[in-house]
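EI: anyone free to look at a 255-residue chain?
SC: sure, send it
EI:
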Amino acid sequence: MGMNLATNLPMDSVTVSLADAERRYKQAAESILDAYKARGPAQADPVTPCQLNAAIEQFLASGIQLERANGDNPWMGGDKISELGDYGISLLMDLSVWAQQLGLDEADSEFEEIALSFADWVMRHGGEIRTLEPIVDALARFANRARDTESLVTLTDLMTRVVHATAPAARLDLTRSYANPAWRLLNLNRAIVATRTHDLVLMEQVFDELVDYLPDAASRFFAEGMQQMDRFDYPVPVREVMGRYFDRWTRRTMH
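SC: here you go
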């Protein structure tokens, strides 16, 4: 349970409109386009930042236009929303690779948080999240900045929405034999954040789903959770909840 929840999290930066995401995107993309122009194109570049930027701007324009016309009401089938959202997220991640190559780490992090805004747009319109990794990374970054109870509860709720909206295929690795590492991390991080809310009902809801989704990882989580209870001086009611799940799902596997 190693997240460092050090500073307050402005929750309006977690779930933002697509129009706000567009403004953030343009600022981040400008630095990449400038750096690429200064470096000069290479013949080996199959897809350039300029091409990716044009496609992302087209995605944003279409999404914003549809949202303004329809609000949060679904206007097309869930598959189409899922496909469109995944297209936008994939474009962002391709541009993020360019940010890394050009040494623009700050833009790379910004793209992950913008991808979370794209995912929020998908979820609000009944779609599935098909590309999970950047979403999980962004949520972990928010968790590392969260501190007060209200922020932690709101973040847990957002993580729960992501868990429920993750497409079945995105929950498994490429072999379809094991849990996708991003899916595993998402569920474990959600359990960590839920524990730090000290909200007993919320903890139980998240712990129950952790057991359903990742029974093997849940057993280890409760064992480590019991160690953290003393280390960070958790309130007695929180200790009791963790202890109950430890007794049921971890202690019994030790015999």
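EI: The CA atoms of residues 46 and 52 lie 11 Å apart.
SC: 👍
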